[in-house]
Design a protein that fits this description.
Helix content: 25-40%
Bound molecules: ligand BES, manganese (II) ion, zinc ion
Distance between the termini: 29 Å
CATH class of the largest domain: Alpha Beta
Shape: elongated
Low-confidence stretches: none
CATH topology of the largest domain: Aminopeptidase
Number of strands: 19
Oligomer: single chain
Mean pLDDT: 96
CATH superfamily of the largest domain: Zn peptidases
Number of domains: 2
């Protein structure tokens, strides 16, 4: 995972298209038969290959369309791809930019290119949120994501080859190079943060333990001057009264950890933004054991934590001028002779007691104490991120995260950040009427109840987040892919990063 993509803005590229060496040259082509100067120059050296494709109707230049043309001795690049950028008269939407970005990245990876050259025409955008710079941000994120492969297969012979090592981009634009470079760099940093999160997600539960998450966070803190990290073990958590968090790891041989990262890019003493991640490194369900069929996917139950660790690196890389706290509540949920049993009652750090009716509803238990712990930082806002409920997949599927909040302004900002960064969330209500589903005869509340699984989980959390503006992202459907593409997705690193970038 170590390699990095060398990604640069190179406006000179458009002038030296024919002579620049690379495994692949990607030319953005507009719809409607009028080629811009760059596309026209390639068309000329290829004896009209582009115009021929257009004439035959094989390539029209529609948004996200992809085509391949043969090169010849007159061109230094090994291959040429065409990517449709839509009609030059039309304004592009955020979705269009995503389509164009992935078409570019996919063409580069389709022939396993290591070095890529990308030359794009000028664009118009359909909203003031969009610009050449934000286009390059999306492209940077997309390219960096493609440069990631999971190669920790524990078998040295099996190392996969990494493609995409060096990419230069030129874009016809009125904006300054500084602005464009900033967009590309921001996008790349977000992509790198996503890759950090993907790697942690993909590592198996026997490697990626709470201790592993703690060590990863410490190494990240060593890498960045303004990032620091403190790790609390079980003894220290016991002292702080975190019996609720600790109850989750009771059946496990792995020690539970509370990780507290702090990025101090802002003024000394300025109140921080906080992000809090669920870090269950494996969720068997505990005594309320899960069925075996897809239990392996429960190694992804630390994806909230991974997004926190990834985002802390994004903000450090971008040197944002604000203070940010990143908390990870980590444990392994196992059955065992010391494991918590249904009906057990525990006391939370807040003083409220919880009857644990289902040991598989463990995410909210570790988060409850983490949400109390974070109060000590007097945060401006707190966003928790968790693969919390299967029910959110029933409600929103695999493309959209669930968002719940006790503060409408915060909810709006996060939803907007999700749209901007192509990492969307949708809000669900947490009205008081749902709270009674958590009533218990034996404690202040039960840890499950009612039929609205995603909402009652958030209602449970809300009881520990009363002292600050708080939002909860349920990413059970979005943080990892199923099926052939099984693996971490890096979400919601883009949403969180965008929210913090917009705050800075
Ligand atoms: N980690 C799971 C949620 C989950 C399910 C994530 C599927 C990703 C895919 C969580 O700890 C859990 O087990 N939740 C239970 C809650 C129930 C016991 C109220 C669930 O969703 O079934
Ligand atoms: Mn569970
Ligand atoms: Zn879980």
């Amino acid at each position: 995972m170590k390699k990095r993509l060398a990604l640069t803005l190179n406006q000179e590229l458009s002038k030296n298209l024919i002579k620049t060496k690379g495994d692949a040259l990607v030319i953005g082509v507009n719809e409607g038969r009028v080629l811009n100067a760059q596309a026209a120059s390639i068309d000329t050296v290829t004896q009209g290959a582009i115009k021929k494709l257009i004439k035959r109707g094989e390539f029209e230049g529609k948004v996200g369309q992809m085509s391949y043309i043969a090169t010849n001795d007159g061109i230094a690049a090994e291959r040429i791809f065409l990517v449709g950028c839509g009609n030059a008269k039309n304004a592009l939407s955020s979705d269009d930019l995503d389509k164009i970005s992935s078409a570019i990245t996919n063409s580069l990876s389709s022939k396993k290119s290591v070095t890529g050259l990308i030359c794009l025409p000028s664009n118009k955008y359909d909203s003031k949120e969009l610009s050449d710079s934000s286009f390059l941000q999306k492209l940077g994120t997309s390219l960096e994501n493609k440069a990631y492969t999971y190669d920790a297969k524990l078998n040295k012979k099996n190392k996969s080859i990494n493609y995409l090592k060096k990419v230069s981009v030129s874009l016809e634009s009125k904006d300054s190079d500084t602005k464009l470079k900033k967009g590309l760099k921001t996008g790349q940093a977000i992509g790198q943060g996503m890759n950090v999160a993907k790697e942690l997600a993909n590592l198996p539960g026997n490697i990626c333990t709470p201790t592993y998450l703690a060590n990863t966070s410490k190494s990240a803190a060593n890498k960045y001057e303004k990032l620091s990290c403190r790790v609390y073990g079980e003894k220290e958590m016991k002292k702080m009264g975190m019996d609720c968090l600790l109850s989750v790891g009771n059946g496990s041989a792995e020690e539970s950890k509370l990780i507290s990262m702090s990025y101090m890019g802002g003024k000394k003493g300025a109140r921080p933004y906080a992000i809090v991640g669920k870090g269950i490194t494996f969720d068997t369900g505990g005594i309320s054991l899960k069925p075996p069929a897809t239990m392996d996917e429960m190694k992804f139950d630390m994806c909230g934590a991974a997004s926190v660790i990834g985002t802390m690196q994004v903000v450090s890389e971008l040197k944002l001028p604000i203070n940010i706290v990143g908390i990870v509540a980590s444990a392994e949920n196992m059955p065992g002779s010391k494991a918590t049993k249904p009906g057990d009652v525990v006391k939370t750090m807040s003083g409220q007691t919880v009857e644990i009716l289902n040991t598989d509803a463990e995410g909210r238990l570790v988060l409850a104490d983490a949400l109390t712990f974070v109060e000590r930082f007097k945060p401006i806002s707190v966003v928790d991120i968790a693969t919390l409920t299967g029910a959110v997949i029933m409600a929103l599927g695999y493309s959209t995260s669930g968002l719940m909040s006790n503060n409408e302004d915060l909810a709006k900002e996060l939803l907007a950040a999700g749209v901007k960064a192509s990492d969307k969330a949708w809000q669900l209500p947490i009205w008081d009427s749902y709270q009674k589903d958590l009533d218990s005869n034996f404690a202040d509340m039960a840890n499950i109840g009612g039929r609205a699984g995603t909402i009652t989980a958030a209602c449970f959390l809300s009881r520990f987040a009363e002292n600050y503006p708080w939002a909860h992202l349920d990413v059970a459907g979005t943080a990892s892919y199923k099926g052939a593409a099984k693996g971490g997705s890096g979400r919601p690193v883009p949403l969180l990063s965008q929210y913090l970038i917009d705050k800075a």
